[in-house]
Amino acid sequence: xxxxxxxxxxxxxxxxxxxxxxxxxxxxxxxxxxxxxxxxxxxxxxxxxxxxxxxxxxxxxxxxxxxxxxxxxxxxxxxxxxxxxxxxxxxxxxxxxxxxxxxxxxxxxxxxxxxxxxxxxxxxxxxxxxxxxxxxxxxxxxxxxxxxxxxxxxxxxxxxxxxxxxxxxxxxxxxxxxxxxxxxxxxxxxxxxxxxxxxxxxxxxxxxxxxxxxxxxxxxxxxxxxxxxxxxxxxxxxxxxxxxxxxxxxxxxxxxxxxxxxxxxxxxxxxxxxxxxxxxxxxxxxxxxxxxxxxxxxxxxxxxxxxxxxxxxxxxxxxxxxxxxxxxxxxxxxxxxxxxxxxxxxxxxxxxxxxxxxxxxxxxxxxxxxxxxxxxxxxxxxxxxxxxxxxxxxxxxxxxxxxxxxxxxxxxxxxxxxxxxxxxxxxxxxxxxxxxxxxxxxxxxxxxxxxxxxxxxxxxxxxxxxxxxxxxxxxxxxxxxxxxxxxxxxxxxxxxxxxxxxxxxxxxxxxxxxxxxxxxxxxxxxxxxxxxxxxxxxxxxxxxxxxxxxxxxxxxxxxxxxxxxxxxxxxxxxxxxxxxxxxxxxxxxxxxxxxxxxxxxxxxxxxxxxxxxxxxxxxxxxxxxxxxxxxxxxxxxxxxxxxxxxxxxxxxxxxxxxxxxxxxxxxxxxxxxxxxxxxxxxxxxxxxxxxxxxxxxxxxxxxxxxxxxxxxxxxxxxxxxxxxxxxxxxxxxxxxxxxxxxxxxxxxxxxxxxxxxxxxxxxxxxxxxxxxxxxxxxx
Length: 779
Prior knowledge:
The protein is α+β, with helices and mostly antiparallel strands. It has 13 helices and 40 strands. Residues 107-181 form the Ig-like domain.
């Protein structure tokens, strides 16, 4: 058979068009097809085609464009079958069409040139070998141009230079017939791009060697990120750039350029070499602009049970976040208008590249997937029009194009049946949102009953993990694990995480100020407004006494004033300075002013950092201050010469508007505040005052049932009692109470409506566009 292919050629080296024609001929034949061929080959001991092999071939008909014949030929090729053997089997089979498919032209390329990467200065060799009925001639091309003096089977360039990189192909002629080889790509790496390399090129053949590593960089927003890596070996390495483990679209070249517009976290880059995988070093690219947090703790409710833990929780988180270089605004006991205005001021600090964090502790509820924070002046019962919708705030943060939006909601998530509105908040789908709920859907969040000041359950465990240098979702996962081991709330409160965060963003990420000096200056100026303390003063009195007047901030809206006697004349038997005559807007209790210890005036959290031997006064609710803060320092002294009758000297002091008072949160709500993004069926002025009472009253408790007399309640726990004559009948039993929703005892007259009853509803009602856009992580 002079017109057939070389019988010694392995069938695995047959050209694809030839293989396709043979397979088509075998697949379409019923009595002389691949099954009969398998039976013939199965009798040959050297090929060992078993019944299992035939069954595997038959399954190929279930695949799109699958071919049992191709699978059979592949198995035969792997076991050493040559073209001569296949020709004999096809003749025995009697499939003349398949036999004709093996007839070849006068020319066949046996060895194809192979792509490779190498270092400049080394030797390049590409090979192409063909056979024909007559002598063959070769000509090499680089793209469409002939390579001069390259008419042999081997193309050799010694030494190779950067300009030699490109695509090569070989044309083979045999008489009037010619064939082109496959394209071979040559990648030449610049020897100056690295300081070390292998001295002998032959050691690189057949192995992938990493030659150029990408380098870590620090960039400003708007700059171009340029990364390069390189490997050498044969066949040529293939590249795929990754960012945080995720392949970058179109990132398949050695060099990567990205225009930095947002904060970028660690990149992980790698390249692939067929079955071999090799990763470059991890590269950190940090471009952060600022980190801002708004912390609100509501505890002194006017129409609802009082809380304790929010004050401690906000204080502890404030100190931890400041260690992470967050700009923190921490506020206690805000009304609805104050909360909305505080959010507006918080939003002024946000812009592209900023991490924004909102923490809220207090009463709350969740309807239809939307979370609502309850102000301290909320009516009884309250509705969405009286509260702040968290999703509305998120919408405004998205408009600021922040890099990270974190919401930590330490509140109950029970359903509020008094509120039948469905907020219409349309959110964008972004990969930078993290919700950490202190409890699961339709459940309570607890604070521990105690005679002192302790954290709520959520912050008790959160503060132990907050400084961890981990992705924020990893931190919350660990908090969830810790909470799950807490016996007091096991089975009653579990942290729930909802996240769409795709990149590795951590609260510990460093800050790289943005390029805009004007923007940075505006941020600092706005931030300073809420955190400027009055300077300490030294007051001299005509009697010769000298007083130090000092100030400290417990929260952004809580100011501590202390007075200290610096100098007392010897002729005085007694000398003391106290402050008085404060604005009635601050509602300061005279009995808790000018106390000898911080604790006596309610300063429990800041007491260790205050100077000793002073008189202390705590001024809260500074956000209510409409005018500059003016008060009187009164010096009271006695002289032995005057029978120790008290003598008074006074000085009027004006310290302007301290801390948060400068932001005028008491003002009327802005027209573009967060209220406007959450469409409600009724406004606060038109919301109904009462709702029909439910049939049953809901007890909120920590799960330890106790039947006991009211007079025997433990002093360390509070109880929630059925209001006599109200819904649900009389209260004959009580529960120890750990709930954030109800921590103080509550009594109601028969005519007074109870607080909103929050209960579960069908989960299908809770689906919203926002929830569907997030990845639910249930601890």
